[in-house]
Design brief:
By secondary structure, the protein is of the alpha/beta class. The protein has one domain (5-134): Cytidine Deaminase, domain 2 (3-Layer(aba) Sandwich). 22% of the residues lie in helices and 38% in strands. It has helices at 10-21, 63-75, 96-101, and strands at residues 5-9, 29-37, 40-45, 48-49, 79-86, 107-112, 115-122, 125-129, 131-134. Strands 1, 2, 3, 4, 5, 6, 7, 8 and 9 form a nine-stranded mixed sheet that branches. A hairpin with a 2-residue loop joins strand 6 and strand 7 (115-122).
Length: 138
């Protein structure tokens, strides 16, 4: 079910900004874990995943790394909600490649020079989702 808003734990927000600011040749990528309550996705964790993309301006995750991170979230009582990735020095909007390649029907968070934004891709539609940062754990 598509959430109508996202609540990021303050620690998740800080971790996403830090990952996007770290020196690396590739876009940072993380899994989003938490719970959906009603129409709100509460993100409580964002384990960073190795980016194995060939191109520096893309991200790709090995299936085994995805499975291990998802199992780790479940072991903590969390559910996989989607992905976050960064556009170092770029926009927090989905790129043309993102619009073509990102998984559908899950939360997609993009970190850019102007901050953190969230989206939901459904078919060809890219729907922005409002984000709230909360000091209270999700």
């Amino acid at each position: 079910m598509r959430p109508s808003r996202i609540v990021l734990a303050a620690e998740v927000h800080a971790a996403l900004l830090a990952a996007n600011g770290a020196p690396d040749a590739h876009e940072p990528v993380a899994m989003l874990g938490g719970h959906q309550r009603g129409d709100t996705a509460h993100v409580a964790a964002c384990p960073v995943l190795p980016n194995v993309a060939v191109h520096a301006d893309r991200f790709a995750v090995e299936p085994a790394a995805f499975a291990a991170a998802e199992a780790s979230l479940r072991a903590c009582g969390l559910t996989w909600l989607g992905f976050a990735h960064g556009h170092r020095g770029g926009s927090a909007a989905p790129s043309c490649a993102d619009r073509a390649l990102l998984w559908r029907d899950c939360v997609q968070v993009v970190v850019g020079a102007e901050g953190v934004r969230a989206f939901w891709f459904a078919g060809e539609a890219c729907l922005p989702l409002p984000i709230q940062v909360s000091a209270v754990p999700a």
